[in-house]
Model the fold of this input.
Amino acid sequence: MPDPPDLAQQREEFEREASAASDRAAWEALRLKWLGRKRGIVRGLLSQLGGLPPDERKDFGQAVNRLKNSVEARLEELDASLSARERTASTQSAALDVTLPGRPPRVGTAHPVSLVVREIVEIFAGLGFSVAEGPEVEDDFHNFEALNFPPDHPAREEQDTFFLRDGRLLRTHTSPVQIRTMVDRDPPIRVICPGRVYRKDNDLRHSPMFHQIEGLAVGKGITFGDLKGTLEAFVHRLFSEETGVRLRPSYFPFTEPSAEVDITCPFCSGSGCRVCSDTGWMEILGSGMVNPRVLERCGIDPSVYTGFAFGLGIDRVAMIRFGIPNIRLLFDSDERVLRQVRG
Ligand code: DAH
Done:
């Protein structure tokens, strides 16, 4: 039985709208428009039933029901195909593209200071030295007194040393590790002691925290010649065989005699440049023969044993080694700087 003309028109309209509904929002609007409980078109048609002459009611009612059924079926069908599309879209967006190149994990690099420490420790290991360490919080005895600093020595003053409230202090050099080692062990002794040290200094070339390596050799018959030979061997390995080494007389309370050690400037090979202030030389460490008074304080008989010691600023060596112009660059931990330095 054909639909009455007005319903055929509705059916066509619905078909047109249904084939244009391409997403969930359009589907929902369509459903509301046709099947909405209050203002839906189907509901509107059914409400016309009561106003019809009784003989037309049945046919019209059946026609509306057919329309309703086909609207429902079509909406269901649309719903199913929209759902299928939604599912594929979401699996696609969550999919893993296994053909993409991997992202390598970012691996850290060793700090320039660590690189230099490693290298120095290795060189001295080859000369029979082993590593010894001591605390960064020290007492006056180990940092000054046992090292033969007189009570009024300027290094002890408040403006150079960080003192703790209890009278202890942040060690101002690695030399107290010499004392601890000599107190603890009997000769022969050959140690190097890398570590952090602290002084109230802060400018382009000084940082309140910096690093030193202490070296100490104590035994029978050790001479100044051994000190010089050891330092030369060390400098030649750390810089190059051509690097010149020069010892200048100096003074430290814990060594006698004492010497400051210069190397030919690694930037100009000794001909003179801006970095070495046109001298051709760079001071890199302090050294000397362990003062007999220091040996005695540590319970080592100076009439039987002698020794040499030296202390070197690691940060300065790292700056020379890697061409780092400003000590702060070492401690700012700026990855862009640190990544440029390779051991
Ligand atoms: N402790 C000294 C300083 O901080 C460096 C030093 C000089 C260490 C001579 C030594 C040495 O062992 O013999 O300036």
In short: The chain has two domains: 5-94, 113-340. Residues 5-94 form one domain. The first strand starts at residue 130 and ends at 131. Residues 113 and 244 are 23 Å apart (CA to CA).
